[in-house]
Design a protein that fits this description.
It is built from seven helices and nine strands. With about 230 residues, it is of the alpha+beta class. The protein has a single domain, classed as Nucleotide cyclase, GGDEF domain (Alpha-Beta Plaits, 2-Layer Sandwich), CATH 3.30.70. The longest helix is centred in the middle third of the chain and has 27 residues. The relative contact order is 0.16. This is Guanylate cyclase domain-containing protein. GO terms for molecular function: adenylate cyclase activity. Pfam families: Guanylate_cyc (PF00211).
């Protein structure tokens, strides 16, 4: 069978086969699903993307050793905190990591994680960088968070495949990371409406979030903050 025939056969089978869907209780691994139209559904899942800002300029202007260490330390900090807040790491994509939260407090868990990522980047990773390198480089990042019904399916070819996450939350959380790193945490209204005071209010009882109209996506109501939560 030629490559064209193989692709044609896959398209015919995929478009011609009904989905088998089951409700998920835990975040699946790729091996938990078939390569056919098989999916796990979560009525509500919260997706967090943590993205290293301006990484193109970083690799173009700095030594590869420096850029590599920035990548590694940023992704480690974000990943360690995702797991610490009961999230599951489901994807690494170059300079960013995707986490999925499915607990009853998933929105607050994800936002607490984002605030701690902000603290870790600015007060731990940046500090250690400056001890080892004589540079004025500042690590900047953006975290995007959204929540929705989400389905996970397996995609790829035999021997080389992974999960794809289908739903508004994965798409919009990723798109939020294209917004300004001057306000490193961005969330949708669907997330904001569920926040408890610990994730909504600052040390003086002030609301830490600023509301925006998202011009790049239907004027949706979104929120940003510059605050962080100290890691103990």
């Amino acid at each position: 069978m030629s490559v064209a025939d193989d692709i044609r056969s896959n398209s015919k089978d995929t478009f011609g086969t009904a989905w088998t869907v089951r409700d998920g209780q835990v975040v699946p691994a790729a091996s938990d699903l078939k390569l056919s139209n098989d999916a796990v559904r979560f009525e509500t899942a919260t997706v967090l993307y943590a993205d290293l800002d301006a990484s193109t300029g970083l690799v173009e202007s700095k030594k590869w050793e420096f850029a590599g260490q920035v990548y590694k330390t940023f992704l480690y900090a974000a990943s360690r905190l995702i797991r610490n807040h009961s999230g599951s790491i489901v994807s690494y994509d170059g300079d960013r990591v995707m986490g999925v939260f499915i607990s009853k407090t998933q929105r607050n868990d994800a936002v607490a994680c984002a605030l701690e990522i902000n603290y870790a980047v600015k007060n731990i990773v940046q500090t250690e960088l400056e001890k080892k390198w004589k540079t004025d480089f500042k690590i900047r990042h953006v975290v995007g968070i959204d929540t929705s019904t989400v389905r996970a399916a397996r995609t790829g070819v035999r021997g080389d495949n992974d999960l794809v996450w289908i739903g508004n939350a994965p798409n919009l959380a990723a798109k939020l990371t294209s917004l300004s790193a001057d306000k490193p945490t961005w969330i949708t209204k669907r997330v904001y409406d569920y926040l408890k005071d610990k994730q909504k209010l600052g040390p003086q009882g002030e609301n830490i979030w600023r509301k925006w109209q998202w011009s790049q996506h239907n004027q949706d109501e979104i929120y940003s903050t510059t605050y962080w939560r100290e890691i103990k």
